Amino acid sequence: MLEAALDALFIVLDPSRVVFIFIGILVGVTIGFLPGLGGPVGMSLLLPFIFGMDPYSGIALLMGMVAVIHTADTFPAVLLGVPGSSGSQATIMDGYPLAQRGEASRALGAAFFSSIIGGIIGAVIMFFAIPIGRPIVLMFGSPELFMLSVLGLSMVGILAGNSAIKGLLAGATGMLLGTVGGAPATAEYRFTFEWIYLFNGIPLTVLALGLFALPEMIDLLTQKRSIASSSKLEGSRLQGIKDAIKHKWLIFRSSLIGSFVGFIPGLGGSVVDWISYGVAKQTSKNNENFGKGDIRGVIAPESANNAKEGGTLIPTILFGIPGSGTTAILLGGLILLGVSSGPSMLTSDLDVTLTIVWTLALASVFGAIVCLLVAKHVAKISLISADKLVPFLLIIMMVGAYQSTRHWGDFLIFILIGIIGWFMKHLDWPRAPLLVGFVLATSAERYLHLSMSRYGFEWLSRPMVLVIGVITILIIVSGTHMKRRSNRMAGGGDHG
Amino acid sequence: MDRKKISILFSLFMIAVFSYLIFEASGFQDLARYFPYTIAIGALILAVIDLILQLKDYRKKSEDGEVDQLPIKSFIYIGWIIGYMLLIVSFGFISATIIFLGSFLWLETKFKLWKILISIGIVIGLLYVISTFMNIQWPTGWLF
Predict the structure, then answer these.
(1) Which percentage of chain A shows pLDDT scores above 90?
(2) Is the ipTM reported for this complex over the cut 0.90?
(3) Which residue in chain A has the smallest CA separation from B141?
(4) How many CB pairs under 8 A join A and B?
(5) Does B132 touch chain A if contact means CB atoms closer than 8 Å?
(6) What is this structure's pTM?
(7) With b meaning 16 or more CB within 10 Å and e meaning fewer, what string describes A145-170?
(8) Cα-based distances in Å from B22 to A164, A193, A429, B18, B41
(9) In chain A, which residues have their Cβ closer than 8 Å to the Cβ of B97?
């Protein structure tokens, strides 16, 4: 296999393919930077161009883009407090407070360096996991997947904000919003008010933009200030890199979590950053500054969301089970290139699989370096006063929101959710659990339905289910206790 | 606006929403009902507990004489955003963007005319570029 890996490296390093990797990286950085345009949009943009390409060049283009989206989406997460995509939801918890303190460069430096290491670790784990991936993926049946959804939601509900009850309530609200539209188990439309726009549910982009971006824009305008409260940038990229090196074990741990959770189809992308953030918070000493601008709160999710890319590719490539919208389109792209996912990816098409691994690793490194190079200049956005910046951002957000379904409903829901998000922000309702609940609702309902119809209530006694259940209860109890203690000691901040 | 009072009103609003969802979900077929129905009931219970805790806290804070205010000025900017949406619905995206950007930069940012014209020019130029190269579409309005 090592010989095959070296051969694949030479294929990837062919100058024409390196050019395609860089084109993919440029598209990925642009897409990641613009809130509202995620991986599926980037994939859709590139897909028409791969017709007629040889598989290796096509893969270089597609993987170059995939590898850097979760690196570049750190820009809006840190600078605007808006998750550029689902992978950067947890980054805003500490990244945005750091930007508000004028330390955007430091946060971005730490995030991009963590992304490089996370991406490499993800690719290495993918390389070694390819032969053993099958039994690991098959360990998770629908009951375990359902319990993982509950675990992810509980973790976020407890960790975000100052009140555990409000966190769980926000998560439940998100899940209810996620049930709008067609029911997965039967032909019935729910909570649609006979409005055709809602038949397919509320688009994730519109919800995320409304919930996070709009309230922030309104507050910046109200306070007539820039994102950074100080008039100059304080931390540097180098300081961020030093921070990341100092917390090397956190990067390593979070990358392992990212790769492993990424294995799980349908869940990984949505919760991996929260799980790594939660684990980092629970296992770190002096964790009272998490949520208020602790650099470890940036390092953990950023390492995990890049490492995850390696993990998500395993079920996609080996079983044809895409874990997200992006990997679903990637699967389509592979078919266009004449490559079929399945066991053949370990035998006759092993070179293609290894090319994917190498491209992922190289693009993670190149992409993060590109982001590091531009970070200093992009960070200056946080110094522009709100009345000069917000009208332009609002136009970008309107464009992003409208691309979801290209229906008037996108605007209406965007503004409605934005107003609710503004009230939530000011009334101490954490918004992050709502987003996670929304993302997990469809898969959680589907897995619960499958578990009940296949096993009745017996699924509750499966060993893995019990283990995940115990972990969930421990997190709720310890999280609530920690929250009470920290509230008693100081009173915390919320950016979720 | 007293933040505590608004918080209680918001919780009451959420209780009303959860109650409505329970009522609505009760009419679904079995397979479509159990998930939202169960979550809405759980959420309603949590919301009621949260409301009780808030009411207790409100009484305590009222005795202490503490009043925390919500920023009313924010509603002006919410108005700007709603106005922008209404402009898009009426005149289409490009015309609405020109009107919104021009008036915002004039009235709120206090830009000079030449800066406003340059800003609008750059934005429209960039919109044209991304619509050409990224296949991104804009809405047309009712009037145009």
Answers:
(1) 6
(2) yes
(3) A408
(4) 136
(5) no
(6) 0.73
(7) bbbbbbbbbbbbbbbbbbbbebbbbb
(8) 23, 15, 22, 6, 7
(9) 395
